[in-house]
């Protein structure tokens, strides 16, 4: 990789948001061409997992078989749906996914719809969308570099600090390396929630399912079932999208499901995503205007509810402790007062953290620079300039993705279509900024 110690733009986060911003900038460069004497714009994308174009939801951190939570026509751009119909055979035979049995099964199940281009109502595997964006990023970079319009570096590493300076930014990584840039985009995804319990995987507490692509849950279920010599009781803390995905994950792994006695979903709402299941006995589990969910997820969850495997408890968890018997004891505030629950494994599915409640070194360091990175009122991100994605406290520093979220749901930038919309606007703004004499790399 060429030297990017002094780049025009550094993007922290190479998932969907960061990649779409870069794709938009490069497309603008390709449309405009280049005047004689202009140097190519230098862009460096830094991603913690090296999942460029994919990120956590659409890459290797999400297990095989995970789906988009809305039908394709409601959740993806038309160009992806057209591409899917055109290239689905190629995806099977290229070998990229040859070990992904659930993806293979999905493609076989919907073979007729894929061949006929009738994909609008399908809940598509997330890895397929990730593969599409990854390829699109690669192709767009190659075109821009071939015409000497841009030089784009892809680096695996964890950004831990951003220091604003008169001439731009110094970006620091966990390995103590640093890079300088004239502009900066924060595209690191959801704020990780702090582990207030202090418990670890070895104690039966799974704080972050995606940190190791569900390996912690898989290994701990097998280990504890063997050690205890019986079936396990699992408690899922929180009822957002990852809660129903955790249930779906277990359903597709017979060796794990066979050693599970119960799954209790504990949350302040008492609901699961996906709408109301049939029957009044299930209403408390799924009503309340929760987020949508994939049809396959809902079908599995409904069956488990009917079988008595999955139950719901409406309560707010206050504390989780591990005791000598190796079980976990959960103190919660229920509808009728304090209650105590027990489980062999607790899975955290409580969603994103807040700027003031996170174990992220990057977010903590940015918050400490309060003159530049001012926390917004919702504590979900940082204060921006009016009608802009630029940070209020620093020039040429921008934000995209969940860090744009406010309390109101319509402000959330997590869905694919929302990311596409914001990335186009931000990419256009950055193209203009990078094309100005002060920002262009004529040095």
UniProtKB/TrEMBL annotation:
Domain of life from the UniProt record: Bacteria
Domain FAD-dependent urate hydroxylase HpyO/Asp monooxygenase CreE-like FAD/NAD(P)-binding: 11-189
SUPFAM superfamilies linked: FAD/NAD(P)-binding domain (SSF51905)
InterPro entries: FAD/NAD-bd_sf (IPR036188), HpyO/CreE_NAD-binding (IPR038732), L-asp_N-monooxygenase_NS-form (IPR052189)
Protein name listed in UniProt: FAD-dependent urate hydroxylase HpyO/Asp monooxygenase CreE-like FAD/NAD(P)-binding domain-containing protein
Species in which this protein is naturally found: Paenibacillus elgii
Phylogenetic classification of the source organism: Bacteria, Bacillati, Bacillota, Bacilli, Bacillales
């Amino acid at each position: 990789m060429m030297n990017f110690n002094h780049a025009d733009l550094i993007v922290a986060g190479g998932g969907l948001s960061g990649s779409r911003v870069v794709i938009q900038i490069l497309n603008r460069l390709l449309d405009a061409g280049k005047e004689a004497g202009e140097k190519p714009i230098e862009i460096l994308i830094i991603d913690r997992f090296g999942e460029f174009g994919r990120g956590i939801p659409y890459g290797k951190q999400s297990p095989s078989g995970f789906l988009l939570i809305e039908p394709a026509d409601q959740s993806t751009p038309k160009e992806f749906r057209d591409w899917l119909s055109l290239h689905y055979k190629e995806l099977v035979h290229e070998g990229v996914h040859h070990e992904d049995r659930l993806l293979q099964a999905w493609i076989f199940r919907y073979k007729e719809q894929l061949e006929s281009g009738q994909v609008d109502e399908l809940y598509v595997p997330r890895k397929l969308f990730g593969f599409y964006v990854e390829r699109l990023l690669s192709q767009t970079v190659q075109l821009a570099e071939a015409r000497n319009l841009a030089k784009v570096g892809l680096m695996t590493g964890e950004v831990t600090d951003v220091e604003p300076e008169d001439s731009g930014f110094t970006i620091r990584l966990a390995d103590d390396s640093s890079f300088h840039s004239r502009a900066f985009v924060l595209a690191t995804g959801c704020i990780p929630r702090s582990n207030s319990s202090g418990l670890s995987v070895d104690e039966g507490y799974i704080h972050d399912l995606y940190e190791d692509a569900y390996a912690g849950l898989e290994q701990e279920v097998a280990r504890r079932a063997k050690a205890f010599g019986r079936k396990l009781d699992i408690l899922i803390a929180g009822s957002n999208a990852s809660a129903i995905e955790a249930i779906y994950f277990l359903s597709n792994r017979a060796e794990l499901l066979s050693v599970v006695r119960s799954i209790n979903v504990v949350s302040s709402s008492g609901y699961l995503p996906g709408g109301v299941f049939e029957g009044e006995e299930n209403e408390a589990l799924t009503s309340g205007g929760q987020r949508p969910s994939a049809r396959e997820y809902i079908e599995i969850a409904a069956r488990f509810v009917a079988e008595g495997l999955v139950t719901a408890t409406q309560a707010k968890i206050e504390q989780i402790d591990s005791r000598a018997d190796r079980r976990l004891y959960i103190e919660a505030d229920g509808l009728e007062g304090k209650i105590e629950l027990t489980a062999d494994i607790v899975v955290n599915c409580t969603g994103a953290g807040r700027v003031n409640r996170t174990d992220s070194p990057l977010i903590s360091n940015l918050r400490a620079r309060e003159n530049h990175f001012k926390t917004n009122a919702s504590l979900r991100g940082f204060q921006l300039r009016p009608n802009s994605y630029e940070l209020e406290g620093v020039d040429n520093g921008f934000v995209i993705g969940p860090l744009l979220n406010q309390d109101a749901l319509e402000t959330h930038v997590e869905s694919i279509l929302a990311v596409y919309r914001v990335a186009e606007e931000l990419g256009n703004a950055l193209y203009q900024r990078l094309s100005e004499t002060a920002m262009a790399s004529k040095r």
